[in-house]
Amino acid sequence: MKTIDTIVRMFFGVGVCCCLLFGAIDPRADGVIRQASAPSGQSGSVGNGTKPVERTIYVSALDVFGNIERPPVKFNHDRHTAALEPEGCERCHPKDEKGALLFSFPKAESGKSAKALMNSFHDECIGCHRKRAADGKKAGPVSCGECHRAEKDAVRKEYAPILPEHYDVAKDSYHRDCLACHRTGTKPPNEAKAPDWKSFYIKERKQEEISWPKMVFDYRVHDRHDKALEKKCGLCHTISPARRQKLAAEGKEPANRDWLLDTEGANLSTEKKAAHALCINCHRARKAEKKEGGPLLCGGCHTGIERSIQGMAGAPRIECGQKDKYLIELKEDARAKGVPFNHKSHETNSRSCQECHHKTLRSCVECHTAKGSKEGGGVALAEAYHKASSSWSCVGCHETIQRKPACAGCHARMAKGLIASACSTCHSGDPKTLEAVSKLPDPKELLPNDTKSELAIAVMEKAYTPSKMPHLAIIAKLTDLSNRSALASYFHRNEATVCAGCHHQVPLQRKTKTPQCGTCHMNRQQMEGATPTLLGAYHQQCLGCHKQMARNEMKLPQNCAGCHEEKRKGATD
Amino acid sequence: MSDSRRSFLKQITGAVAGAACSCSGEALAAETDAGSDPLGVLVDTSLCVGCRRCEAACNEINEDLPRRSPALFRDETAFDRRRRMDDSAYTVVNRYPNPNDAERPVYAKFQCMHCLQPACVSACIVGALSRQSNGAVTYDPQKCIGCRYCMVACPFQVPAYEYRNSFAPKVRKCHFCFEKRLAQGSVPACVEACPMQIMTFGRRIELIQLAEDKLNRYPDRYVPHLYGAHEVGGTAWMYMSSIPFRDIDLPEFGYHPVPGYTEPVQHILFKWMLPPLGLYVILGGIMWFMESRRKQQSRDPDRPD
Questions:
Q1: A7: distance to nearest CA of chain B, Å?
Q2: Is residue B110 within a helix (H) or strand (E), and if so which, with residue range?
Q3: Full-model pTM
């Protein structure tokens, strides 16, 4: 069974078949944030919607084969697609009893052992190549070394940590450098013995995995399907028979809340299998009916292009029976007051429902029970909401947003994670707090009347001219940035929040003078321990923030001359 | 793999030591003349902005280095290549690409690490290099004979040689501002010059505590490791970094002091007067052999003399 799964996984990884791209996606049209870079050594360029991406797949890199005598076969699916176009996908892929294509290979399974599998690969590939050559058609190689070609990247072995499926390295705040530890002394899984703890966390990266970028089914793609399929949700969304029975017993109508629930509890390979079978068979059927259909080539869906949240603008809200606002609270054994939650605003700040709901569209508590369940991966509800190191949790996602240039100026220097005083900001227990959010006031209302708009800092007077710091303009800019963000407006409750970005560890009050930096940060002789002196405090604070915030449109001084000019020796002496 | 060289050395050490006699292998000469509470510097490379003022300050205070104008240290093209300490600079700042954030490269300053058990001191056959009680590893050009064993011994490849000086070439390396500043109770010139104050000068034990606090408080900011706390037996200069240390040219060393590999072998060879005794035994053997042959020859009347 595992063998079949693996083959299926591999071939679905490649995707399928011939043909045109009806209604080809033009992702360049809207905010593209990231193009997944083609792994080094892979051929082809990232797709632009009209020209399919040409990538390869390492057939022999599959787990089942282990270490093989010859170099792995670099299989180019797109070239086979082009050559076999008249014969269709059926030439290589089998059909199930209903006539739908199953994207597995080889067609005829001769057995489950690695040897038998190898034979069926060889029979099918070489058989076809021979036959085509005999028919006088363009045909592939038949000798060993022509397919099993030793290429630099083909023998490359990489080790990757084994992470939970829902884990997204790019979104993780704390574990970006897992491989710094989980790297040395690592052995391939088959060689590592049980006591080597690192082997638990490391697996060999399968080269096929990096062959194709992930397909992101965002709100825009969903909308396109919604319109083309006339809102027949059931064509894609299915409900497992068990769940259907359960709902029927409760007297409820099944709602399209669960995404491909027939793969529930299964691993990624079957999800891949289901997705490919569902999508490509539907695209093929629509093409046969001469209707507008989706891509049939690998690169049509796996474009490697991810739209930004801004790119989601214009996609209508997906109606799933969800409410605009919820009060998240435990019915029993609650330790804190409920959290009013604006579901609608979170929808407009995400690219797909799966960014929070994983693979289902059920509410958090159904899997992440108060004590944790197997279904929720052992993650208890409190952890699911609060774990700062996971981008899936509320706290973790908000911390990820704090790393944006607009926020990072202040937040990068602050300690991460939950602070005790912040509990009541979310746990108000009152849905009205969502409406009660007010913007930060104009800086002039806050600051004492005699505050200078520009301060001259002269800690390096000997060598440099005093640096002019536009105090008021900085506060105005930070206030503006905070007020423009709904998230910041909600959490920046204290009217002096932006002041605290620099004036840390001092009480801040309206129209009251704050202690100056030099109160704590004195000259070197007077200082003890690691607290920076005034010189270090200014540079760390100013330049640290400038480095974090200077992106795109914001131009902030980055070097010495940006803030203070060097005095010429002749002029001062 | 870096282990192979080390394990090779270990095997050799073990074989020779075992052959000579049983030995603990831990006796180190350098350990004895060093203070137990050395000074140190904690370098937080995540803060460095690459202004090179430490280089300028170093050049300014060390008058025996070639004079450079301060303007020269504002030249950012110096970052285009990786530099090493040489006979004109005791410290250099390098720029490294940041895998986490391409727009913000990482800068790191290097100088002599001032090991707690320095390999250069162990290797120096005339005692030109020595470790002071406050932790500074200093150099005495009067004693130096220019053998450059220290350059081979140093795991960080710090000591440089004045190849351009034909008549009185010296080994060049950072001396922790030992004479000019530490002895007067002030901090090294580079530490004082740094506007970002990425360097904290103090007692090494306190700095380790400070670094641990920082690593615990800001786990997202640093690689969870204090480089130099244990590497090659510990160094006075210790590093914190936001990217893996191998990416800022700080190699992954074991925690065993470098002299620990060589000194047991050397010490055993010279223990209990072994070499002179051995020489006597060999020479005596030859003498006895020659003597017996001569006697045999003189007893043989047929052979003409």
A1: 34
A2: strand B106-110
A3: 0.71
Q: What angle do CA B153, B158, B164 make, to 5 degrees?
A: 100
- Cβ under 8 Å to B: A residues 341-380: none
φ and ψ at residue A78, rounded to 5 degrees: -65, -35
Domain ranges of chain A: 2-156+211-307, 322-410, 445-572
- Dist CA A203 CA A107 (whole Å): 29
Count contacts between A and B (CB, < 8 Å).
52
CB contact under 8 A, B197 and A543: no
- Residues A472-506: b if buried by 16+ CB within 10 A, e if exposed: bebbbbbbebbbebebbebbbeebbbbbbbbbeee
In tens digits, chain B (305 residues) has pLDDT values of 445 555 555 555 444 444 443 333 344 444 444 567 899 999 999 999 999 999 999 999 999 899 998 888 988 889 999 999 999 999 999 999 998 888 889 999 999 999 999 999 999 999 999 999 999 999 999 999 999 999 999 999 999 999 988 888 999 999 999 988 888 888 999 999 999 999 999 999 999 999 998 888 888 889 889 999 999 999 999 999 999 998 999 998 888 899 988 888 877 777 777 888 899 999 999 999 999 999 998 887 665 55
Homologous superfamily of domain range A322-410: Cytochrome C3 (3.90.10.10)
Which architecture, in CATH terms, is A2-156+211-307?
Alpha-Beta Complex (3.90)
Q: B78 at the A interface (CB within 8 A)?
A: no
Report B:182-211 residues touching A (Cβ under 8 A): 187, 192, 194-197, 200, 202, 206, 210
